[in-house]
Structure formats: C-alpha cells, structure tokens
Amino acid sequence: MSEAVRDVVHEVITEILPTVPADRISGRQHLRDLGADSVDRVEIILGVRERLGLAEPLASFSDLRDIDHLVAFLTELGAR
Amino acid sequence: MNVGIEALNTYCGVARIAVPALFAGRGLDPARLDNLMMSEKSVALPFEDPVTHAVNAAKPIVDALDPAERDRIELVVTSSESGVDYSKSIASYVHEHLGLSRRCRVFEVKQACYAATGALQLACGYLAAGVSPGAKALVIATDVSLVDEGAAYTEPAMGTGSAALLLSDRPHVLALDLGASGSHSYETLDSARPTPTFDIADADRSLFAYLDCLTNSFRDYSDKVSGVDFATTFAGLAMHTPFAGIVRAAHRKLAREHRIPDIAEDFARRVAPALEYPSRVGNLCSGSVYLALASLIDHLRPTAPVRVGLYSYGSGCASEFYSGVVDAGSTAAVGRMRIGEQLAARCELTFDEYKNLVAENATCLVPVADKSIDPDRHAGVLDRVGARRTLLACTGVTGYHRKYDWITVGAA
C-alpha cells in the first residue's frame, strides 16, 4: 500500500514541480527542499488527497517532517 | 430591514515599492513571483500608525456627510492586530480626530484578519434591530506591517493601511444578505503577533487553515441559505487576500469541489477583479477583504443588482462566508473615493529608501512615554506623492499620549 501511495505522491510532485526530476525526490526531503513554495505545497497536498480519494482536512498536513512522513500519514489514512 | 455598507474607502499609504525590486534587493527567487501574484506593496512612513491610517481612510467618508448625518454615527469600532496600548483603544483617537459626536459607543476589537467582519456583522445586527432608527456605525480595519527580511517571502506580501466602512440603513455600496452567513472557527497557532515588534507565522498551517475554513464556512452558508449554487449565485467573490496567489489557489479548490467546468475562465471573470488592488497593496489584515470588495466593485462595475460573496479569514482562527447585493449605486459610491488614482499617486521608493523606512517603522507600536516625530524629515518622499492631499500624521508621544496633526503632502 505505502509504495502505491509513494508513487501517487511522486506523480503529483512532478506534475506540480515539472522541473524536478523524479529521481531527485527523496523521502528524507521536505517539499520545500524540492523548491515547492507555499502555493505549490497546497496544490501537492490537494492533488494527492484527491487522487487517493481522501477527505482529510488540510490542517492535518500542517506538521509533516518530510515526504516519508507524508507517505506514512496518507497510508494510515487510507487504512482507516 | 435593508442594512449594509453605505460608504467604503481605503487608505493604503503614500509610498510603495515594486515587488520585483524588493525581490532583487533581498535576493529572493524571482521564480516565485508567479505564485505570489503581487506587483507592488504599500509602505508606511514613520509618522504613520494604525490611528493615522484609520482616520485617513474614514475622513473622506465622514466629510461627505452633512452635520446631522455625521451626528447619527452612534458606534465607532476599530479592528486591529496593531494595538497601540493594552487598554486605550485606537478607536478613542480615531473618534477624536474625525470630530464625531460624543454620543457614541467607541471601542476596538481583535481577531487577526477576521476582526472587521465580526464587527460589521454585529453592527449590522444592531442597525437591523431598529432600536435607533437612522443610526450609522463606522467600522474601521487598520494595521501596520512589521515584517523585514527575516520574513522572507512574507515580506513582499504584507501591506499597510486601512479600510473604513460606514454602515447604515442606506446600503449604497453593499446591501447585506442579513442572516446569510456561514462560519468556521477553531483554535490554532498559525500566525500571531506576540510582541509589538515581530510576527510569527507558520505558512503551511495558516494556508491550510485558510483553505479548510473556506470550504467549511461556505458549506455552513449553503446549509443556511436555500438554493445556493457556487457557480451561479455570485457575480463576483471578494476574499481575504494574504497574497493574490493564495486566493487563486482557494478559488481553484472551491471550483473543483463544485465542479466548475472552466476554472480559469471563472477565476478571470469572478475573482481576478477583486485582486487588482490587493496585488498593488499587500495584505491589509482585517481590511484586506474590504480592499478586495472595493477592487471587485471598481473593476466589475455592476450596472444592475447582482450578488457577491465575501470570505473573511483571521488566524487563530475564525472565518466567515457571507454575501450581499451590489448595483450601479455601488459602482458610483466606490468610484467617488478614487481608490485606483490614490494607489497610482503613491511615491515609488527605491530599495534603499524602503530598507531605511522598514528599520524605522519597526518601533511604531513599541510603547514609549515620550518621543518626537517630525514628518518634514520625509519631505523627499512626500514631495514625490502624485496627488496633493491632507493627511493626519503622528507627531509624537507625551506621557504615553499620542499626538497628531494635519499635514499636506504631494506636489503642488
């Protein structure tokens, strides 16, 4: 499950940040480290939420440490 | 009873800096300009404070009233996150320098960028109750910016200034849909001003809260008002604008949720007109949504009655979606304030001039027993203001009492 979620996260990131090569995305990075500004980060979270069919409030995504944390949180939401 | 906004004016300073120049001066990444969607920001001068901003926004409204009408202003509320004293309100100074009747309720409210909307709703409820037929209320949102280079990309987004709203049973600018409002509020620390010298902000927490609250306050509005359709009910939308780019993202979110087929067209037609002024001024805090409303009316230029939606959000957090009706009278009433001309007349600062002013403005809200401020020291900027106008200026503090005087600025 978490690999499928990671694929979706990477897919959305590369759509919102087309200049970031997919192989440059590491789980230990924050979206900020990839050059995502605050609007990009909103679009990325909205994109993965929509693609995974989740209705979780955006506020729940306020404390993400890095992309691994985002994937783990999305995986947990999907299992609920 | 028909109540709402009789007159609306803004004061957005007499100086500005181009946002690309600020980016260059601070070494910020120009690739971020697209999502910021800001072209200029207003900059205060060191003799300006929340009191002068408020008076300078409200004075043209009050001056347009005859003495009998002026005496019907029975309520003056200032909303601000830039308080000048823990006890004494900005409103007390504003009431004095606008020369209003002493038979008046005077106080100040605070709830970050939402506060003016809370005050407007309570004041309109009072007016609609009819306990004082013909009464008017003045709600004035007023704030100063304290951000410097430490705020990074927030610095270009923060404006300075005030929005003044005269409320009455003659709502020439916006006839409020009484009772048609939705709220969504909860405790969070997304941004705050813990001391008189700096702000704290958590960008993700704040923007996520802003967007969650938009969806939820609109849902509450729709639950209370029958037949609401996001796509067709509103001819225009004025939203709290921390920076124009987030309003574009907010519209996109709501448009997807309501299955708008052509989101870009919808944005250009119903939202972009409300961003013209905010993208030239920056965030006015609780006045921001009313600068957006002025922009919407000045650029939509309604000729027949149409409904507009307003979204107000304040960190902390509190939010509200509400609506009202604008028409040809709104176009005339807002147009009389010549807001676009006043923005164009602001003196354009160099980056070095801007940097020096930011350093001086940093102590604007710090309480001191005594100080003297000489507006003439800024003649080099004031002489470059494109339109001659009379403004209230802070000339100093004596025994913690702020002192004010009228000055004339602009080329003769």
Automatic annotation (TrEMBL), chain A:
One MF term in GO for this entry? phosphopantetheine binding
SMART domains named in the record: PKS_PP (SM00823)
Q: Please list the residue ranges annotated as the Carrier domain.
A: 3-78
Record's superkingdom?
Answer: Bacteria
Keywords, A to Z, come to: Phosphopantetheine, Phosphoprotein
List the InterPro entries hit by this protein, alphabetically: ACP-like_sf, PKS_PP-bd, PP-bd_ACP
Gene3D superfamilies referenced in this protein's UniProt entry, alphabetically: ACP-like (1.10.1200.10)
> What is the protein's given name?
Polyketide biosynthesis acyl carrier protein
Query: What organism is listed for this UniProt entry?
Result: Saccharothrix tamanrassetensis
From TrEMBL, chain B:
Question: Would you kindly state one Gene Ontology biological process term found in this protein's UniProt entry?
Answer: acetyl-CoA metabolic process
Q: Which residues form the Hydroxymethylglutaryl-coenzyme A synthase C-terminal domain?
A: 265-358
Q: Name one GO molecular function term.
A: hydroxymethylglutaryl-CoA synthase activity
- Where the record annotates domain Hydroxymethylglutaryl-coenzyme A synthase N-terminal, the positions are 74-168
What Pfam family is a match for this entry? HMG_CoA_synt_C
- Read off the SUPFAM superfamilies from this record: Thiolase-like (SSF53901)
Q: Could you confirm whether the keyword Mitochondrion appears in this record?
A: no
InterPro entries membership: HMG_CoA_synt_C_dom, HMG_CoA_synth_N, Thiolase-like
Query: What Gene3D superfamilies does its record include?
Result: 3.40.47.10
UniProt keyword list = Transferase
Q: Can you tell me which family this protein belongs to?
A: Belongs to the thiolase-like superfamily. HMG-CoA synthase family.
* The protein's name in its UniProt record: Polyketide biosynthesis 3-hydroxy-3-methylglutaryl-CoA synthase-like enzyme PksG
Organism, as annotated: Saccharothrix tamanrassetensis
Taxonomic path: Bacteria, Bacillati, Actinomycetota, Actinomycetes, Pseudonocardiales
